[in-house]
Amino acid sequence: MKRKGTGPDGLVIVDKPAGITSHTVVARIRKLAGTRKVGHAGTLDPMATGVLVIGCERATRLLGHLALTSKTYEATIRLGQATVTDDAEGDVTATVSTAAVNPEAIEAGIAALTGDIEQVPSSVSAIKIDGKRSYTRVREGEEVELASRPVTVSRFEVHARREAQAEDGTPLIDLDVTVDCTSGTYIRALARDLGAGLGTGGHLTALRRTRVGPYTVDGSHTLAALEDSFADSVLPIADAAAAAFTRWDVDAEQARLLVNGVRIAGPGMDRSVEPIAVFDPEGRFLALIEERGGKAKSLAVFV
């Protein structure tokens, strides 16, 4: 039974508009849901649009696991100009003609950034250094050097190439691309590194996230639509878990033991299939578990 004064348990898939922060979206959802217990599964930069997964009430406990799922982005990369922020919001630091850059060179540069790679995040990312966000340190004038980290780019595909020009007439190139990648991949860094590899510099001029795990922009809601019909836009927590994780249906006795913290025999699934969503005979979502040593270990219990 819901406690009086609490919001709905579930996810809201928002199509974030450009020009506002993810935290602004969270604040709007808090008002609509009537609860402060609201969070998101990974931010989008203010210039970026697209899928922002918001959790309300108990569904906030799903967010850390959802944040680890793969993502898809549509982006425009401008070759020939580097910026302070690796995107269009930062000042241009260098302009180099792309007149000599051919399609084969671009293809080779993209191939080098596809697969399992080591990526240095943008210095204006939200990564914390000694408790302070990297972007805050940069804005305060500090020189920030972040360590590389392993990421996987499973698709980095060019859809269109257009000629462009800088204000002084220097030839530039715009590339429309699609990227499928693991959590923690910075599309700004891909633009920066592609330009660096070509010797021209590069940055993002547009970014739209079209998928987070199983949740796509086709099933998302604009803020205006949420204002009109919020309750109908909330994906119930059980449906959200079933869509995002492998499902395991247990009997009544297994369910009783699990919710009381007892490690029972696991479902015998591949260890790479984690987390696993557990449902009781009535279809109630009980818990997220991982399987270790043949036993089911609870990651989070939802009843």
Automatic annotation (TrEMBL):
Which EC class is this protein assigned?
A: isomerase
The EC number(s) attached to this protein equal: 5.4.99.25
Identify the residues that the record assigns to the Pseudouridine synthase II N-terminal domain, covering every copy. 30-187
For this UniProt entry, the molecular function terms from Gene Ontology, in alphabetical order, are: tRNA pseudouridine(55) synthase activity
Q: What are the residue boundaries of the tRNA pseudouridine synthase II TruB subfamily 2 C-terminal domain, all occurrences included? A: 245-302
The annotated active site, in chain numbering, is D45 (nucleophile)
CDD domains per the UniProt record, alphabetical:
PseudoU_synth_EcTruB
The alphabetical list of record keywords is: Isomerase, tRNA processing
Q: Which Pfam families match?
A: TruB_C (PF09142), TruB_C_2 (PF16198), TruB_N (PF01509)
- Domain named tRNA pseudouridylate synthase B C-terminal: residues: 188-230
| Protein purpose | Responsible for synthesis of pseudouridine from uracil-55 in the psi GC loop of transfer RNAs.
Designated name of the protein: tRNA pseudouridine synthase B
UniProt lists the gene as truB
